[in-house]
Amino acid sequence: MEWQTYLLAFIIGGAICVVAQLILDFTNLSPGHVLSGLVVAGGVLGGLGLYDKLVQLAGAGATMPISSFGNALVKGAIMEAEKNGVIGVLTGMFELTSTGITAAIIFGFLTAVVFNPKG
Amino acid sequence: MSRDPKKKPLTVEQKRYTELVSELVPKPQYGKNALLAFLFGGLVCVIGQLFTDIYRLAFGMSSTEAGNPAVATMILVGSLLTGLGLFDKIARYAGAGLVVPVTGFANSVVASALEFKREGLVFGVGSKMFMLAGSVITFGVVTAFIIGLIYAIFIL
């Protein structure tokens, strides 16, 4: 638990959010467009092997932003492709992202059942 | 949204109206928004790092393995904040700082589910839950599929 990791997580994670905020403020794009773009960017960086370097450097600063979802999808697809070729792209796609998607469905469903819309 | 180019040119009144509107609509405070997004985004990631380290030390996981439960925890936090109605209040200041991390993904799921709750559990919550988050999953999977195919065909 080194303090440098926390500093880098803060700086890199914050920087990714600033980029998104500037795109939101300076263009007409909706948050949905920007988030989709970030996921695609994370996927491309993952395909080039660069996103993992960012994760090694910044830890949660790189794994918490939604771009890491794109990276994890690509990594899962490539890992299985190494074993099973083209079929592996299909079977491995959600291998690493299953935690995030499952958590979102389960917690999202439970929250929606328990709470009621405000206002 | 940009104006339809096929539309007729604006009359003088319409032009004056659009000028008036653009004068009166408050301009985004770029610097302040960016600073707040940086601070909140950084803070969310530091909390995420804290959870990663807690899981790593408590369960003897590697940093990579510990990232998964940490992401799940942040999704739980984002869901609860949305359910309690606090997410939007914080996001008003934090902007992208709260929306870009997985907390925002959780928020888009819960917000859609709650919005359509009155349409029932099946057609409301069940179907509409991924109305906003669906695009992120779709574009992520399409990107990963293309990159995976390129990798499987040309690089392996």
Question: Could you describe the 3D structure shown?
Answer:
The complex is a heterodimer of chains A (about 120) and B (about 160). Chain A contains seven helices and no strands. Chain A has one domain. With about 120 residues, chain A is mainly α. In chain A, about 55% of the residues are buried. Chain B is built from eight helices and no strands. The mean pLDDT of chain B is about 90. Chain B has a domain at about 30-130. Chain B has about 160 residues and is mainly α. Classes of the chains: A mainly alpha (about 120), B mainly alpha (about 160). The interface between A and B is large, with 79 and 80 residues.
Largest interface: A-B, 79 and 80 residues
Radius of gyration of chain B over all CA atoms, rounded: 21 Å
Percent strand of chain A equals under 5%
Structural class of chain B: mainly alpha
How many distinct helices of chain B? 8
Quick description:
The complex is a heterodimer of chains A (119) and B (156). Chain A is mainly α and 119 residues long.
Explain the layout of strands and helices:
The complex is a heterodimer of chains A (119) and B (156).
Chain A: H1 3-26, H2 31-47, H3 51-58, H4 60-63, H5 67-84, H6 86-92, H7 98-114
Helix pairs in contact in A: 2-5, 5-6
Chain B: H1 12-24, H2 30-59, H3 63-83, H4 87-94, H5 96-99, H6 102-115, H7 121-128, H8 133-155
Helix pairs in contact in B: 2-3, 3-6, 6-7
